[in-house]
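Preliminary data (for renewal application), FSX complex.
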Amino acid sequence: MTKKTHRLSDELQKHGISRRSFLKFCTAMASAMALPPMAANVMAETLEKVQRQSVIWLSFQECTGCTESLTRSHKPSIESLIFDFISLDYHHTLQAASGDAAELAREQAMHAHKGKYILIVDGSIPTKDDGVYSTIAGMTNLDMLKEVAKDAAAIVSIGTCAAYGGLPKAAPNPTGAQSVSEIIKDKPIINIPGCPPIPVVMTGVLAHVLTLGIPELDSHGRPVAFYGDSIHDRCYRRPFYDQGLFAKSFDDDGARKGWCLYEVGCKGPVTHNACATLKWNNGTSFPIQSGHGCIGCSEPDFWDAGGFYKALSTSNAEPGHWAGVALGAGAVVGAAAALANRHSHKQAESDKTEITLDDMKESDA
Ligand code: FSX
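Predicted structure:
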């Protein structure tokens, strides 16, 4: 991997980013994470001084979607620059080294940064039959996770597979797949679920860890700043839900008018993530905006819960966690004119939260 400068401020200068623009970025990040105003200054000061953080990234049973999500930004963003700035000492997909040299890099990083490196994991861990179903360099994923976790300062589980087991853990779970937190019990673990997670959430959480430490987490180990609201809470189609206006099929008149997708199976009401505000592809869109209901991919066991095209109120027979948490369709019908207005306003404010390097250069001009 290319060697970077030792301070983020040098890296920013190299890319023509002024301090004023950098402060704007920190304010936007602090706001996206619902931090108090002073946090932006603390974040800026710490980020400017922060030394390169050693990160070891292990990929286990997964589809590489999480890494794809992170690396497929359309434009380089300041968030990606921060990600680029860390010392990614080991990453199966991104590293140039292979074979013995790759494993040596991992061992050297573990030794040189003992007790200080951050371990990022994507993918679940097969545990059945001593974990033989997935090995790297002759070592089972299970052994490698335990070995690297032992001297890590903290662990970040990226993607629903690492956070909760994800697709590999779906019934009948032939490999005995488990999440990181089912195996490692003595380290702080931050879960960043999503299949895959939103890129800016990954880099935002990393920026938080580098500057302010471990963020506040919910009962599923997710940062509250990004997973505190349900998709439904922030969905731009929410006013239609509140008025009882639902698409009954994907090609009916209601669907064409952009009505709520609850009755065609949207899991937004029981799914916690920031898709409705941060969106995807540099804030372009998200599944519900493209006409497909949320499938709940950032919730534990979402795959086994199934019922992707059944309304929550009628999917109680489905296995998994949707049962018992379904909202009655139209339960708050008529309640929402004021809420809708407030929501639209918030939506407009938050439509573009990812600031690109180009934007910053433009704003400097
Ligand atoms: Fe899982 Fe990620 Fe879904 Fe894929 O690494 S969360 S299957 S997007 O790739 O782990």
